[in-house]
């Protein structure tokens, strides 16, 4: 996790206290100098056999909040792919502060190290860095530069030192109480005397009652009543939230042969967009591509009645946006409005007049479209983009736009096809819902991050691709890498945008970061290393796989992110046997869990299971009903042997 700057923080002075080993020309003291162009300015172990470590001693006791690792100006096989950092008041008793890894590039990386107990940050005199894996598997470890930041003002640190001394003493006494109670009646007097003289409780009084009821009295009926009451009082809520879900799929049955525009439900499509109104429990669907043409129809789906209603056959004819796909939508519950931005255009339609980034709003109650901007790039907003992401902050009435590929008249080649996955070149456009090109990847221009203030109708650029947020006062702020095909979700309580995955040209990303919309500070949750905390059905795979279409949503009440990962968009990466997987990320526990993966693969399996669970897909969309805890995926393209089909499914999480 990347550190957040505090105005009282400063660079902390330290010395190298001890180390495991080193090569003669690469002394550990060299990590105190930041010389990225000097290949000799680093510590290198003489072996990669564990344990290898560096122990740094701070000049005085400090609250260490972050560590920054500098790097060589080029990629290097000895860079740390995986490492741990420990800290403590003495060398013999340290706690783990961080497990992470560095990207194999030249960009310095900053990680938070704060360890808290009851609101007090742990003071440190020693910091221990333990390399675990280098980017070259058989190479030794190298650290080029280390900078520690935090607070060392004695008046501030003293309170933490005093608290942790008292905390250790209190825990030692509680361990003694636990030991005496476990020894039985023989030590009951010692237990009572120690507890009475010190005034420290071993545990919550309710746990003492449970111990007496179950252990001492063996009253199983009373124990069951106690546990039932505990559940009713919410005492086990945190434990239950930590358990894996068991998803249940339920198909919303429609007539698969009805695909015309006059039908009572949307026809098959991909690259469309959906948003949900949690107040009226209504899903809105607009646009997409049906394999032949872009669509401009607008639909609503009422969840309680399970019914579709067509709101418009042609939105352009009613003053709204033209037919499009690979656009994005968001819904403002306060203003009762739907906003849509972006689209994809085939090469033959990319003229200077046609590459304007129009921006529309739909008034839900009035059923009316309004053009906000004819070209957002002319008023400080993004250029015409596709495969971007947008989120809306209802409290501040602000829309955030991030990523996406900028359309230009000279981009791509005349050989592009919308359904690149089945063509001879590796180009995916509307059909994938995430249009990506490798044919002209050197000309690919990615869009940065923007915000739109609804009441004033003004755009603001937050940062460009590979930039730092302009308004952020964060020191050593991580750069933000623009991307396509990513996920971006807004948590109104935490006031953060969560961004993960996506693609930059040929690079598939699996980094994960949060952007604070109020302070514009970036918090790196994971920098792209695959070693992250996880549990569930895929303990050997800790995060959703890169290069596979993922659709994500968030539950702010439960502090959880849900990700449905399916078919790869890239023909070269697509497996013959494809699988669905469903992941949950807990913001509180910083942990991924895979709660579903189909057991079998192949045409025979999917033919048998098509009404029981969704087949792997891309170009689909999904929305999430917070009140019902239900996810609604709709539509997709599944390309295999020249076919594509579309289905509707409903996922119950509970």
From TrEMBL:
Organism: Cloeon dipterum
Keyword annotations: Kelch repeat, Repeat
Keyword Repeat: yes
Domain Muskelin N-terminal: 10-204
Record InterPro entries: CTLH_complex_component (IPR052456), Galactose-bd-like_sf (IPR008979), Kelch-typ_b-propeller (IPR015915), Muskelin_N (IPR010565)
GO cellular component: cytoplasm
Protein name: Muskelin N-terminal domain-containing protein
Coiled-coil blocks: none
Keyword Nuclease: no
Domain of life: Eukaryota
